[in-house]
Amino acid sequence: RHCTDIICCVIFIVVILGYIALGIVAWVHGDPRKVIYPTDSYGQFCGQKDTLNENKTILFYFNILKCASPVVLINLQCPTTQLCVSKCPDRFATYIDVQASYRYKPDQWNYFRQFCKPGFNNPRKSVAQVLRDEDCPSMIIPSRPFLKRCFPDFSTKNGVLTVANQTTFKDGRGKTRNVTDLREAANGINNVLDARSVGMKIFEDYAISWYWILIGLFIAMIVSLLFLVLLRFTAGVLFWIFIFGVIGIIGYGIWHCYWEYDHLKGIPGSDLTVYDIGFQTDFRVYLQLRQTWLAFMIILCVVEVIIILMLIFLRNRIRIAIALLKEGSRAIGYIMSTLFYPIVTFILIAICISYWAVTAVFLATSGEPVYKVMANQTLCKYANLTCDPETFNTTNVTKLCPGAQCTFAFYGGESLYHKYIFIFQLANAFVFLWLVNFAIALGQCTLAGAFASYYWASRKPADIPLWPLFSSFGRAIRYHTGSLAFGALILAIVQLIRVILEYLDHKLKGTQNSFTRFLLCCLKCCFWCLEKFLKFINRNAYIMIAIYGKNFCTSAKEAFFLLMRNVVRVAVLDKVTDFLLFLGKILVAGGVGVLAFFFFTQRIPVFAQEAPTLNYYWVPLLTVIIGSYLVAHGFFSVYAMCVDTLFLCFCEDLERNDGSTAKPYFMSASLHRILGKKELSPKKA
């Protein structure tokens, strides 16, 4: 063994160090509070401790009618003054009415004043000046907090939209308006609130049933282990039952088509051809034609003959595939620790995802507060220009544009760091894909090394190393980090291109340029196929790296040509393995899912009292089904890797050895028997 692809290993280590440095820089400049807390018009966080807004956790909009939609309210900035308040308004009121009655109803003014700018307490100021300077809102309406922002308290009464049981309100400018005018400004809020209620109920269901979900997943793990152990004895039976079942079903289809064809004989109109009746939207019309059933019968006969001929000519290769499946089950039985290695891969990928997500959030919140001129007059030439709130009042902007204000707009910056934040986000995504693919590659190479040590042991299990999994993991890290990083890099580049294509496709969905959409569709399809091909090549290259310890390119080339020399065996083994593992996943997920359904719906008398009372029984049920499928997938991925490794070892064994005393085969006795005397006889020089 020697170190392979050293240059790529060095680059990989440098990139990891750079990735750590990027995370540190993002952590220094970023501020997640910008995501957690809403920001008022002065760039201050609502609810931030040790500030004047510590007890003011909710954002209030002076004129919510200016806000086009909740998306504008949450993600961008609504063109109206925004203040941090301790609670949302609970009544209708206008500044005009409050000002007119502040002398004999001071309580109304004191209540309304808490929604004005801090420090404003001049009810004698003219209404026009107050509204121009936006010292106070022109109106307040009953609202409730959502996402730490005040939204109108909508409700439906007898099919009519209302706010606090009223259908009209005063807008504070002398007009009476219908509450439907608020609909556009708060579009979709009720649906989101309903979703929040559903979310709370789902959370409650999880809180009640989490331990039963864990029990269900534990059962799925036990069933998956049993299935893998039993494959040693049932792989052939399951496959042949499926094959003969398919042959029988197709045979029944042929008979049914002939029966329909004969039954329609003599019926008026049944002897017409498809060409005679042309295209019909009701496809049942075609079922009244004898020609249709004759075509179906011919197609099914051709499929039946093809399947039977394939079974006749590929019977030995199918037997080899089944024998390798049984051998894989036996190998896992000797190296049981491999079944739990996916947990290591899961932890590594979880770390990568967490680091990427945290870095992305800190990068997205790395900007400094940017203030812009907000003017009521549409013709103001200073509107939307950047400004400095500390010096804004000394400029002539307020004179040229009465009522203009310098308010917080968004987080950004003009420094070199801020200009390249988008590039940093792309780098963050690219290194994330590279690290995830490296973690997967490390797992595949480690498992391949462990199972290869089983195959190449002369006496099984006596000659298997003491700790084959840990030894293989150590070899992969010590000698082949560069090769694994090289394969992961190629795959990460293709995946990043696919991400960019998906982004462009999303952005260009509204375009009418059909050529552009066609070109994007072709590119997406090509890169999808390329990714699948690279995954196949990488997987087999890692197996060859684990066996021989060569670099990535050499291993990929040797694996590819070895597979091409055994292409029929590859196809047969791949399909047989896919079918049996898919059947196993369905059996595990379906069986545990049925058991969970009867349990959570309290249909098992013995456990009826133990079953929790739920808002939605499908919440833990779907969790158990999906979780069981993922658990089975984790165990069966080890099995698939085992079979692929044994298959490459088997092909190498056939090419390098001839069964003689000098070059004996390393394959098991069952594979010896299937190959027969002719293939096992010593090769002539």
UniProtKB/TrEMBL annotation:
The chain crosses the membrane at residues 7-28, 210-230, 237-255, 293-314, 334-358, 431-456, 477-501, 579-600, 621-641. Pfam families: Choline_transpo (PF04515). It is found in: Cell membrane. GO terms for cellular component: plasma membrane. Its main location: membrane. GO terms for molecular function: antiporter activity. Keywords: Antiport, Cell membrane, Glycoprotein, Membrane, Transmembrane, Transmembrane helix, Transport. Belongs to the CTL (choline transporter-like) family. Choline/H+ antiporter. Choline transporter. This is Choline transporter-like protein. It comes from Cathartes aura (Turkey vulture).
